[in-house]
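Practice record 12: protein with LD2JLWAY.
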Amino acid sequence: MPRPIIVTCGEPAGIGPELAPALHRAAVPFVWMGDPRHLPDGTAWTEVTDLAQLPADGLAVLRHDFAAPARPGTPDPANAAGVIEVIARAVTLCRDGAASGICTMPIHKKALKDGAGFAFPGHTEFLAHLAGGADVAMMLASTTVDPPCRVVPATIHIALSDVPRTLTPDLLERTIRITRAAMIRDFGLPAPRLAVAGLNPHAGEGGAMGREEQDWISDLVARLRDEGLDISGPLPADTMFHAPARARWDAAICAYHDQALIPMKTLDFSGGVNVTLGLPFVRTSPDHGTAFDIAGTGQADPDSAIAALRMAGQLARARQAQ
Ligand SMILES: NC(=O)C1=CN([C@@H]2O[C@H](COP(=O)(O)OP(=O)(O)OC[C@H]3O[C@@H](n4cnc5c(N)ncnc54)[C@H](O)[C@@H]3O)[C@@H](O)[C@H]2O)C=CC1
Ligand SMILES: NCC(=O)COP(=O)(O)O
C-alpha cells in the first residue's frame, strides 16, 4: 500500500474537523491527525498507531489529544499548542518516511499567535522552518477550470504598503526559480511557461504609473529568458487571467498576495489548492480558511479540501516515481 498522506486537523474551532468525513472522496490513502473529540458527532473513526496498517472502513485517526473540546467559531487559546504540535508531528512522519505528504486543514493565524506565541505568518513559513530553512513559495492552483490558473505570490502575508520594498530582484528571481523547478518536478511539465505580473497598473505603462517594471523587472525577465527559461512579462495583471491569456502560461508569478489569490479564488474557490513549492516533502491545503462564520453549521463545502488531498496524492506519487 502507498504511504498515506497525513491530514492535519487545523484549527478545531474552524471548519477543518467537519470536512474530515468527506475526504474519502479523494480516493487517496490518508490518516487524519487530531483530537477525535473535535470530529462531528457520529463520525465513524478508528485509531491507528501504525501508518502501514490502515483500517478498511471509517476515518483513520492518528490521535493527538488537545487541551480542550472545540467550540465552533470560537478558538480556545488552550488548543493553540495542539494545532502547532500536529503540524510538526506530521512533518516528522514525512521526514521519517512513514507518510508520503501532508494536507493541512486551515489554521487561524491570530488564534495561534495569541494562544501559543506562534511566530510564523502561516503554514508556509512554519513548514520551511521545520524543513531546516527551505526556500519555499506558495502556489494556489485551480483544479476545475481550463486553462488552469496557477499563481505564486512572490510576497505573501505582508501589508500592501510593504510590498514595493519587499519585492526585490533577488526575491522575485528565487520565486521564479522555485516555481519552475516545482512545475518540472512535481507537475510533470518539462518546459513550463512562466508569466510574471507587473507590480503597477498596466505594468507601469512605460514609467507613467510606477517605475519598478522599467527599473528592474523587465531586465530580470529578459535575463532569465536569455538563460533559456520560457518566461514572459512583466504583464499587466488586469489582463493576464482571463482564459485566452491563461492559455499562454502554466504558472504566473505575482507581486503580492491579492494580485495572485483574487483571480484564482474567483475562478475556482471550491477547487482551489494551496501547494507549498520547494519543500523536501509534499504539502497541500484547501484554498480557504477557518470560516468561523459557518463552522459547525454543516454548510462547509468540502470540495477544496478533497481537491487538496487528491493533489497531495498525485504529487506524492510523482515524487515516488522519481
Ligand atoms: N491554509 C490555511 O491555514 C489558511 C488559513 N486562513 C486563515 O483562516 C482565517 C479566516 O480567513 P478568512 O479570510 O475569513 O477566509 P475564509 O476562507 O475562512 O472565509 C471567507 C469566506 O468564505 C467562506 N468559506 C470559506 N471556506 C468555505 C467552505 N469550505 N465552504 C463554504 N464557505 C466557505 C466563509 O464562510 C467566509 O464567508 C484567517 O485566520 C486566515 O489567516 C486562510 C486561508 C488559508
Ligand atoms: N491566503 C493563503 C493563506 O493564508 C495560506 O497560508 P499558509 O497557512 O498556507 O501559509
